[in-house]
Structures are given as C-alpha cells and as structure tokens.
Specification:
Two copies of one chain form a homodimer. By secondary structure, chain A is an alpha/beta fold. The first copy, chain A, has three domains: about 45 residues, 434 Repressor (Amino-terminal Domain) (Orthogonal Bundle); about 140 residues, Response regulator (Rossmann fold), CATH 3.40.50; about 140 residues, Rossmann fold, CATH 3.40.50. Chain A contains 15 helices and twelve strands. In chain A, the strands form two sheets. In chain A, strands 6, 7, 8, 9, 10, 11 and 12 form a seven-stranded mixed β-sheet that branches. In chain A, strand 10, helix 13 and strand 11 form a beta-alpha-beta unit. The radius of gyration of chain A is 25 Å and the shape is elongated. Chain A starts with a helix and ends in a 6-residue tail after the last strand. At the A-B interface, helix 4, helix 9 and helix 14 of A face helix 4, helix 9 and helix 14 of B. Chain A binds a DNA duplex through helix 2 and helix 4. Chains A, B: It comes from Neorhizobium phenanthreniclasticum. Chains A, B: This is LacI family DNA-binding transcriptional regulator. Chains A, B: Pfam families: LacI, Peripla_BP_4. Chains A, B: Keywords: DNA-binding, Transcription, Transcription regulation. Chains A, B: GO terms for molecular function: DNA binding.
DNA sequence: CTGTTAGCGCTTTCAC
DNA sequence: GTGAAAGCGCTAACAG
C-alpha cells in the first residue's frame, strides 16, 4: 500500500499534526523533529495525495483572466474558451473570473493587474502588452507570490511564470517558407515575385516578431521575392479591406500576401473583389469562420493557427501547478503553430 | 455553498446511505424513495465530487496499453510516453500496464485482448490491426463493459469507444497537396513528375488511408504527377533503405518521395547515398531524431506528425471519463496532423 | 513545540 | 428497505 501520513507519524514517532507541519513547511517544529519526519518521508517514499489534501482544505483555486475586449474572431473565441473553463469550474475546483480591458492599452492593463493584486487570487492569466509599466506590475504580482501566465502575447524577460502562446518568430519563418515554396512554381522561375504584408500594428510584439521571422526567411532563401512596405490594418476588417484593395491596385504584380494579424474578413473581400487574372497566394493567421471558408474556397492557401482552447486549458493547468509548487509536463504545455491547408481542416 | 450528499439526505428526508444507493444506481431502494431523492438532487443542483468519491472508494483506475514491439522511433517514443504516464501514476490514481505484442500480427493482438478481458481492467488502449477477429475481440470487451480506445490506427465501424489518433485520409491529402505545390516549381512546369510512395504494410489501415488521401489529391489536382507502385518497407529501416535505393536506381526521374510509414532512417540513408544531381522532394511522417535532423539538413522537406504524448494522455483522459460515464472535452482530444518544416521545429 | 480531535464529501459495512 | 457509524488521506482548530 502507498504510505500515508499515518505511516509517517508512526515511523517517525510523532503525531499527525507534526507530520502535517513538516509537509507544509509550517513553523513550530524543532529541527531535530523535523529531520526525523523528513527521514521517514524519504524512507517510506511518501507522496502526498493532493486530492485528499484539497478535500480537507476545501480548497478552490481562484484564477483571473484579463482579456482585451477586441472584437475580432480570435479574441472572441478566446473568451469563449475561458467561459468553457468557467462552466467546468465545479469539477475542477476552480473559480475563474474574466476582466475585460480595452485593447492595446497598457494603462488599462496595469490597472486591472493592480486590482487583481489586491484580490490575491491563486493565479492570473493575461494577454500581455509589451510595456515597462506592465512588466513592473507583473513584478509586484510575483513579489506577492501570485503565479502569472501570459497568454497569446508574451512579455520579454519578465517575471511571468509561463507563456501560453506560440513562438511568433517561428510562425513568421514558417509563413515565409511556405510563401517561398508555394510561389516558386508559377511566379519565381520567370521573374521573381512581389509580396505584400498586412499587419495589425507594429506596436504589438507578436506582429513584429512574425514580420521579423517572415522577412528573414525570405531574405535568406528567396532573394527573388520582394517584400513591399508593411500595410497596417489595425486588426480591423474594414481598414484591412481598404489598404489591401489599394495595394492590389497600385501593384498589379503582387503574387503573394502574408496577413500576420487579424481582420482577415476585409482581406478576403479585397482579394475576391480584385478579380485578378492570377489570384495572389494568401497566407493568414488564425482559423476562424471566415478564414476557414476562404481556405476551403481557395481564396486563402494556408492558415497558421494557435489553438485558443489549448492555450486556456494550458494556462489553467500551469497556474494550478505553480500554485501547488508542482512541475508541469512540458510537452503538454507547448502551444503548436498549427498549419492548415484545405486538406487538414479539423 | 455547493450542495453535498448531506444536503440531499436532509432535503429528501432519508439517510446518507440511501442517497448513495440512488446516486450509484444500487438496488435496495423503493421506487418512491428513489424518486424523492432524485427530486432533491435535481432541486438542489447537486453534482458529485469525484475526487471525494474516489478517495472514499480508494479507487485506482487500472489501464492496459497493448503496443507493438516495433523498433522504429515512433513506436519507441510511444512506449516512452506510456512509461511517462506510468511514472505519474500515483498522482493520477492510475495503474498502467504495457503488454508488448509482435507487430502486424492480428492473432497476437487478439490473444492479448483476451488476456486483458480476463483481467477486467478499467480500460484498454491498443494499436489496432484491421481484421475481423480483432473486431470480434473488441466486441467482447465492450460486452464486458470495458472501455476501449484505439491508438494511432483505428478499427472501422467497430465498437471501440474512442480513437486517439489522426485522420489518416486527411494526412495523406495534406501530404499530396504539399507534394503537388512544392513540386510545381522545379519540376512540374517542364515535364510532369514521378513520385514514389514508401509504406510499411498495406495491411494496416492507417497506411492504406494515407495512400488513399495522397493519391486522390494528386489525381484531382496534379494530373501531371505520376505515382509509382507502392514500395513496402515493413516499417523497417534496413528494408526501407533497400527498396528505396532500388527504386531510385531504376527510376532516375523520381522527383518526390512520400514516406507514409516508419523506418525513415533507411529512407534517409538511401536518399543521401543516391547522390542525385537534383535531390527528390521528401515528405515523411513522424518527427523523430532522424527525421528532425534530416529536416534541418534539407534531406526531408516536410514532416507530418502525430504527437504520441498527446495521444497517450488523451487515451488516459478518455478511458477515465468512460470509466466514470463522464463526457470529454472534444477539442482537447482531437489529435492534430502537425506539419513541420525546418522553421517550426519544436 | 507537540498532540488530540473533528471533519472535508463520499462510500461502505453492518445492524435494524 | 433503510439508517448509523466508521473511515478514505489529509488539514485545522485547539489544548497542553
């Protein structure tokens, strides 16, 4: 049988309470007694039954998710996944609360983090904005011993405990490779090719990193491909449509478009309306209703995706583990860069 | 506060024991009493605390994994993942046993399934072989109320409870699309292209399905591509090397190779040794040490992968859920067709 | 500093 | 048929 606290108590010749104090590093145990107990624990190979402990404590993990109230499909999906987790709360001994903040607003995010700090929850997950004041706020959470996980967009060299999101440089490189290879046939062989990039804003780190990865692969491996100056669509479908339509008009030779942000509904409309003799190759991010339909129809050629459900479940698992001081299964928490062609749609 | 069995007992005016009998459908309760209790449960919105129940029962889930003792890296990796799960057993209240069987041997698999049936474990996971006697054995497990999960390779219209693996037709189609698009440039434009397919055995369903998906995409969308008769390497590196080397010798014009099974070490050696002026485009399955290295070096162009760790964890989650009659989170159990280029290696 | 005792939510004898 | 009581492994008062 697996040893229990009783076995340890007996073996060390102390009471349950003392064993418990040692197990939970509570004060009030003489060093000698402590080591006696620790020896017994090691000798018996004791491992604590977390479920029993949580039952006894009546423990419930309180987590806060701070999400931007952005109205693009990806963020809406992320919200839904958190709500799904809330629905499962009772079975998972969690209590999860969502705080909505205005997008791209560091001050609002800092405010939210401060409020959370006052609440002292078991953990916080948030979509980071890369700004010094945000890093400072995260530092304060760390000092207070509250585990933090960044979601979707990370904070560089910060004190967050974990990042639940994709490697955006790798994503950009992947897009670059696909673009280069897919273009090779119809265009490159003859006369090189011109490629447009549509971003949301160069202010957010994930977009900058994707551009960086994309550009470096093109530069290294596909010197015949010319990248036009970045178009900024602010993740807004209407604006995206305008800037893309405009670009297609001005550059009749655009052979490919890499959309590294959101607002793809507009991009799709612009491409469809352009009615070009030779449709440009389009690579976009995030599988949503519109990108999925465009992929099936052949308007988009490939979609790079991050699984919001995985990110949310991972964030919760990691926060729980951090709250308990337990290790995580690294492979389970790695968020993949999913590549979808029309053939492997889920 | 969440209602407990005590609240139900009080509200229904019965004892804890009776509530428990109703909750677990045990006999010895008059219909009237039963419905009184059921009403209380509904009225209070009671949900059972599984952790507490398992603690009281001293329950531990006993699972058996039946794995082919194949010596390719993928299967070795799968074994390791199961061993990882075994290492976590105590924390997860599971007791997992591995049964090794000779590969591609339906009789051996049936024998193993029969032995398992006699043991009456809480659940079984196995790499299926598509044969009537296997389906029959699974039927017997189902009758005995033992949940079953197929791993990696499925059993068609069978009574298994769940399949933890990828959609192999979609995987084949994806490989076909990538092959077609990647080939377009250097080869197709001029004179069409010849492609070789290396499989393990046409006896296993996953290999047949991948071939089917691959062939149909090529047929539909890349009529210039000619697929040579399938090479069978029995997932064995040495044999794979021989058959591939032989094929490359006989068909100097091979422009692409789709390796839809295992034994890629041999394939890689054959391609490297062939020293062709123009290296064929290679698409393979399963990210292992050797395919990863080949991808990085440019010997392999793309790898389709199924995450063995995800499959094993998923199988365990599903078996637990089935054993408890609980629902699963569909999105969490979908095994993705991972596509790796050299740019998005994990 | 250490031990005793009750109890978390559920199941399980064993009486009645 | 039904109920009272003990206990799963752990924690939390409260005494000493």
């Amino acid at each position: 049988m697996k040893p229990t606290v009783h076995d340890i108590a007996k073996s060390a010749g102390v009471s349950l309470a003392t064993v418990d104090r040692v197990l939970n590093d509570r004060p009030g145990v003489r060093a000698v007694t402590r080591s006696k107990v620790e020896e017994a624990i090691a000798a018996l190979g004791y491992v604590r039954d977390l479920a029993a402990a949580n039952l006894a404590k009546g423990r419930t993990y309180s987590f806060v998710f701070i999400l931007p109230e952005n109205d693009n499909s990806f963020m809406i999906g992320l919200h839904e996944e958190v709500r799904g987790a809330i629905a499962r709360s009772s079975a998972e001994r969690t209590h999860i609360r969502i705080i909505d903040v205005p997008p791209f607003d560091p001050d609002a995010l800092v405010d939210a983090l401060e409020k959370v700090l006052a609440e002292k929850p078991s953990g916080v997950a948030f979509v980071a904005i890369d700004a010094p004041e945000v890093r400072a706020a995260v530092g304060r959470l760390k000092e207070a011993g509250i585990p933090t996980v960044t979601l979707v967009s990370d904070l560089p060299d910060a004190s967050r405990d974990h990042y639940a999101g994709i490697d955006n440089i790798a994503a950009g490189r992947t897009a670059g490779s696909l673009m280069g290879r897919f273009l090779s046939g119809p265009f490159l062989a003859e006369r090189g090719a011109t490629v447009a990039v549509l971003a949301g804003s160069m202010l957010v780190r994930d977009h900058r990193e994707r551009l960086e990865g994309f550009s470096s692969v093109i530069g290294e491996s596909y010197p015949n491909v010319l990248i036009l100056p970045v178009l900024e669509g602010r993740d807004d479908p209407a604006l995206a449509e305008t800037v893309v339509a405009d670009a297609l008009r001005r550059h009749a030779d655009i052979a490919g478009i890499y959309s590294l942000g959101a607002g793809n509904r507009g991009l799709i409309r612009a491409v469809q309306k352009a009615g070009m003799s030779r449709r440009p190759l389009v690579i976009a991010h995030e599988l949503t209703a519109s990108t999925r339909a465009a992929l099936a129809e052949g308007v988009i050629d490939a979609v790079l995706n991050q699984d919001a459900g995985h990110e949310v479940r991972s964030a919760i698992r990691v926060l729980k583990a951090k709250a308990d001081g337990l290790p995580v299964i690294a492979g389970q928490e790695r968020i993949r860069i999913d590549i979808f062609l029309k053939d492997n749609l889920p």
